[in-house]
Amino acid sequence: MNNASIYNKENTGVFLSEKEKTPVAALSKQLHCLYRDGFRSMVVGRTLWKIILLKLLIMFAVLKLFFFPDYLATNFNTEQERANHVLENLTSTAPSR
Amino acid sequence: MLSANTHKEVVVGDQILTTVDWARAQFALTAMYHWIFVPLTLGLSFLVAFFESIYVKTGNEEWKKLTRFWMTLFGVNFAIGVATGIILEFEFGTNWSNYSWMVGDIFGAPLAIEGIFAFFIEATFFAVMFFGWQRVSKGFHLFSTWMVAVGSNLSAVWILVANGWMQFPTGMAFNPDKARFEMQNFWDVALSPVAVHKFTHTTSSAFLLASLFVVGISALFLLQERHQKMAKRSMVVAAVFGFIASVFVGLTGDEAAFNVAHRQPMKLAAMEGLYVGQEKAPIVAMGIINSSKKPGDDLPAFYQEVKIPGLLSLLANRDPNSFVPGINDLVFGNAERNIIGAEQRMVTGKIALAELARYKYAKEKGDEAEAASALAIFDQHKGDLGYGYLNNPAEAAPPVATTFYSFHIMVVLGTLFPVIFLAVLYFAFKGTLEYQRWLNLVCFFSIFLGYVASQAGWVVAEVGRQPWAIQGLLPVGVASTNIAASNVQTTFFIFLTLFTALLLAEIRIMMKQIKIGPEA
Fold first, then answer.
1. In angstroms, what CA-CA distances link B344 with B350, B354, B385?
2. CA angle (B235 as vertex; B256, B157 as ends), nearest 5
3. Which of B352, B405, B406 is nearest to B380 (CA)?
């Protein structure tokens, strides 16, 4: 970081070079640093992120993929076929349970 | 012992459970687990915003420390609970495909928009809230915290509107060509009285539960003689918020019951175990339900009960002398009171179903005249479409004992909580809160009671509307998908394991953070 770098007005510790002084560039840099430093400084958050990622992996890569296909989307090709199937279910005799 | 039986059934012990039984059990399991995390997120987000507002107003660093402590617990709960609701969407597509298809036009787009909106609010303001303490101004940080609170609560709007619509379908028309309910009036759906009360009652109960959580954890600190100043400050703010929320829960609950009386009278009758309708109908303050009782028989409804005369009539009609229909009136009808029973509605419903079938076959044959004729008759009878699927009018009644006990547990606990909040405030202003060991113990155990009341509320809402997925129009048995029961059974136990692991993780991480306290 050279001498032309500046602190932003909130004294956030984010250094901006000359070309980063334009509002959009400065904001982008600050946002990048907010997330980067935030993730780096997490303590309990690290454990939580591991749980979140593991949970999402199980949910989408295992459960959704192998156990929860969208029944109508998987078994029928068109909207009309799906509608016909549901209408068939509605009009064929069915128990209430 | 579990064993796979036929395609649509699984034998559990001497019980035969069908696909729809397992689908219902799975939905109940996942929804109840989901509802462990959600109310704390909804309520704690506002409490954190209150704490931070006091910090910004006073500039007192102790309030900042306090805010960050509760924010950490909020973060733990949010992280563990986030996306647990998506599993319900998986279930809709797999286990409840008929229902999903039929309501897709009404709720598909709003729920998707809400999800995207919630994601952007959360991705933006959560980051500022947790990472931005040293990077943005106090004012912007506070704004972000409030946006998280508002955004979290707004993201509950459409799912509760959808639930309200299922209890009171309005603002739509059934399109027999697409087998879909199509929205006719957005505002009728969004602002239906059932939807409005569903949202206000649910969110205010979440505020109440989160207040109990803050009061309870703070009481634990007082019992342990740790962080007493922080604990007392937290308790006062949470007790004020909790008391206001309790009053609001009571008022919205009263309005919700009034709506139930007029839109779902069977549910109200089940909530009170009222089989024979009467004027000056009493509320059962306490009672032991006779679970052998069936609609139309001569068995007593209760083994023991304590009644308050006229109160149910007052609740249902704002008139203590008015008539409230019982389960028998609603099942078999009551000509004297001009009540059409399920028995008669079944006749109408079967005509609607027959005409819908005739319409379908006429369209397939290309016979437009026949189709038009069938549709005209269907339109006259479609209001009772769902009753056409019933085999017996008594099937229109929900499980009475479950509905009754859940309702009474909810009401009794809901009455206890404001008393606890008032006691906390009384001793806080006397300056002796830390010496009230009994009260602090009660406060701590009230966290658990808060969850019991909250879950009981959902049991009343969902069990009490059985057998309907959509009130009067679609029973759960027709809403479900024609798949093997063993498939749903397998995923039921996968979810049980997954959610239990998540809950244990939440409790473990929370306990660790609570043990560390605000110094973390």
1. 10, 16, 12
2. 35
3. B352
Residue B97 CA to residue B165 CA, distance in Å, equals 18
Query: Are the Cβ atoms of A87 and B134 closer than 8 angstroms?
Result: no
- Token pair in block for residue B215: 């009061």
Contacts of B505 in chain A (CB under 8 A): 51
Q: What is the DSSP letter of B84?
A: T
* ipTM (interface predicted TM): 0.82
B443-473, pLDDT tens digit by residue? 999 999 999 999 999 999 999 999 999 999 9
Beta-bridge partners for B351:
none
pTM of the model: 0.89
Span B254-303, pLDDT tens digits: 999 999 999 999 999 999 999 999 999 999 999 999 989 999 999 999 99
Among B residues 68-107, those touching chain A with beta carbons less than 8 Å apart: 72, 75-76, 79-80, 82-83, 86-87, 90-91, 93-94, 97-98, 100-102
Q: 3-state SS of B176-199? A: CCCCEEEECCHHHHHCCHHHHHHH
pLDDT tens track for B299-356: 999 999 999 999 999 999 999 999 999 999 999 999 999 999 999 999 999 999 999 9
- For residue B375, give the 3-state DSSP assignment: helix
Task: Give the minimum alpha-carbon distance from A2 to chain B in angstroms, rounded to a whole number.
Answer: 22
Confidence grade of residue B398 (pLDDT, cut at 50, 70, 90): very high
Contact of A71 with chain B, judged by CB distance below 8 Å, is answered with yes
